[in-house]
């Protein structure tokens, strides 16, 4: 057997593994922490999807720690280098690899569940959309739980996974479970995008907010691409003739694409929730959280000589100083604090995330109460004319 050359032994993919994991980890963590700050200190509302997303982020951090642990034990270097130098432990490397699996599955499941819970709450009155998202979530959980069990119990006894480096005589192949899991995760991402994007396009928003919302939802395509690339690389690596001959070297980018899929999903889940904070810092970019920056068609109600009659005029109006109204679009109920009523001149949503901050002037789209809809605000302009009937 020919001894490996010094140049061969000096080859390293460690920088690529560290950079590929660290960049997406930093970006995903910043989005998660920013969302958490916004929910806790600006909106002061912590919902079920926030708890779920926190579990997903913790699992993602656990997966990243395992990747860095694998690097410390020889991942990204040739097997020959690890054997000759004796500075790394193949057993410890396999332990980190084994521990990474549950973190990977949990992170993927919980980030997608958080997205699904947000969409169910916001589009609750869209029965078809709600059922589609719920069905997707059930499929996600059931398939991943089955795959976790199959991968974690692949060896008998379990410890030979690391003590004997997964001998074929004692361990079943995990290639098929990984294919199934990866395919379902990609299909779940596509299903969520296909369900939500058409409904986002139907929201009554100004163009700036619409573009931002569409962009946030479309980030999911990056997670789809990362998931597909991970599947391709797993197939290419595990499908080599004679099996994997240089595992620490060959599998380096599987780690990168797995981390990318996790943290891009985390960004998709966290991004809508940071809009109130961004609006405070850059209100002219995303619009205020309490009023729309755009003017829309307005309806002015004025009284005439016949009691109960209404005259509607459609025009653009500036903000008035007399009178106000709270309007519920689903019931057409209006509560006026002035002698006349005008409804309304703008709609604003917090980018698929309602504030529930107790503002006095608020409405619900498309109907219902509580957290079920998207909160919007209405401002009024009141004419100060006096009718003949009022003078008498």
UniProtKB/TrEMBL annotation:
Transmembrane segments: 14-34, 98-120, 132-155, 176-198, 210-232
Main location: membrane
UniProt keyword annotations, A-Z: Membrane, Transmembrane, Transmembrane helix
Low complexity bias (residue ranges): 373-392
GO cellular component: membrane
Chain spans, region Disordered: 354-392
Keyword match Transmembrane: yes
Rhodopsin domain sequence ranges: 35-280
Any Pfam family matching the protein: Fung_rhodopsin
InterPro entries: Rhodopsin_dom_fungi (IPR049326), SAT4-like (IPR052337)
Bilayer disposition of the protein: Multi-pass membrane protein
Keyword Cytoplasm attached: no
Subcellular location: Membrane
Family: Belongs to the SAT4 family.
Protein name: Rhodopsin domain-containing protein
Organism name: Pleomassaria siparia CBS 279.74
Lineage: Eukaryota, Fungi, Dikarya, Ascomycota, Pezizomycotina
């Amino acid at each position: 057997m020919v001894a490996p050359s010094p140049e061969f032994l000096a080859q390293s993919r460690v920088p690529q593994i560290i950079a590929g994991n660290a960049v997406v980890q930093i970006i995903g963590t910043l989005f998660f922490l920013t969302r958490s700050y916004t929910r806790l200190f600006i909106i002061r509302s912590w919902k079920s999807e926030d708890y779920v997303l926190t579990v997903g982020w913790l699992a993602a951090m656990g997966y990243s720690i395992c990747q860095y642990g694998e690097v410390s034990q020889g991942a990204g270097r040739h097997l020959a280098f690890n054997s000759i130098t004796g500075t790394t432990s193949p057993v410890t490397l396999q332990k980190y690899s084994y521990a990474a699996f549950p973190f990977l599955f949990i992170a993927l499941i919980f980030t997608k569940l958080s997205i699904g819970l947000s969409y169910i709450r916001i589009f609750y009155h869209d029965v078809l959309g709600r059922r589609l998202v719920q069905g997707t979530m059930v499929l996600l959980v059931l398939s991943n739980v089955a795959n976790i069990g199959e991968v974690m119990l692949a060896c008998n006894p379990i410890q030979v996974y690391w003590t004997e480096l997964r001998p074929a005589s004692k361990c079943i192949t995990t290639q098929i479970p990984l294919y199934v899991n990866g395919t379902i995760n990609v299909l779940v991402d596509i299903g969520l995008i296909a369900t939500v994007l058409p409904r986002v396009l139907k929201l009554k928003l100004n163009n700036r907010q619409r573009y931002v919302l569409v962009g946030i939802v479309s980030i999911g395509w990056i997670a789809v691409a990362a998931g597909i690339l991970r599947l391709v690389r797993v197939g290419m690596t595990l499908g080599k003739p004679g099996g994997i001959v240089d595992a620490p070297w060959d599998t380096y980018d599987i780690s990168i694409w797995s981390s990318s899929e996790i943290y891009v999903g985390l960004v998709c889940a966290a991004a809508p929730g940071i809009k109130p904070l961004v609006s405070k810092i850059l209100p002219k970019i995303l619009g205020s959280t309490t009023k729309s920056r755009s003017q829309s068609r307005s309806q002015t109600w004025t009284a005439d000589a016949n009691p109960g009659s209404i005259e509607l005029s459609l025009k653009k109006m500036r903000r008035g100083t007399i009178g106000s109204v709270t309007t519920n679009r689903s019931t057409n109920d209006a509560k006026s604090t002035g002698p006349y009523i005008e409804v309304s001149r703008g709609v604003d949503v917090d980018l698929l995330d309602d504030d529930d901050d107790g503002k006095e002037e608020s409405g619900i789209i498309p109907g219902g109460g509580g957290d079920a809809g998207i909160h919007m605000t209405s401002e009024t302009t009141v004419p100060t004319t006096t009718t003949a009937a009022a003078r008498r």
